[in-house]
Amino acid sequence: MVYVEPAGADDPVERLRAVVEHFGDEPVFVIGHGRGGFAAQRYAICDPAGVAGLILYSTSPVAECSDLSHITAPTLVLAGAHDDPEEAAALAAGIPRSRIVTFEQSGHLAHLEESERFVHILLEFTRRVSGPVRTGRR
User: How far apart are CA 71 and CA 87, in angstroms?
Assistant: First the structure.
């Protein structure tokens, strides 16, 4: 799983592409949190073959890309009820094969505020998409 953090001045999509290529030929799960969700969405549209699954967490639709229907990867949209659930609903409505989960006791940091449920939801999603967990290197 690759977690996107768009720090610095370079193009976060290009940086994400380089990280994904480092893992080889297998598609990866990409999680974009906050501003990182913008890069994750753009990457999933530009390089769909590299994305096994997309997790958009406390983010909103990319302003430059109004057609979310080009995201073909199974997508999990996560939102805290005290953050901006309308943005999450807009993402889920625009992305085919997406599912939305709201964390009722959380804001922008559900991974800290409801950590056990957060981990359970991520594991459930990745297992559903990819099957049993594999261990070891190729």
Answer: 17
pLDDT tens digit sequence for 76-99: 999 999 988 889 999 999 999 899
**Residues 47, 51, 52, CA angle at the centre, nearest 5°?**
155
pLDDT band at 132 (very low <50, low <70, confident <90, very high): low
Burial class (CB in 10 A: 0-12, 13-18, 19+), 65: middle
The sign of the dihedral angle between the CA atoms of 117, 118, 119, 121 is positive
pLDDT digits (tens, 9 = 90+) for 49-75: 889 999 999 998 975 556 899 999 999
Cβ(31)–Cβ(57) below 8 Å: yes
Directed axis angle between helix 36-46 and helix 12-22, to 10°? 60
- The domain ranges of the chain are 2-130
CA distances from 81 to 39, 67, 105 (A): 23, 25, 7
Given a cut of 70, whether residue 120 has pLDDT beyond it is yes
Architecture of domain 2-130: 3-Layer(aba) Sandwich (3.40)
Predicted structure pTM score: 0.85
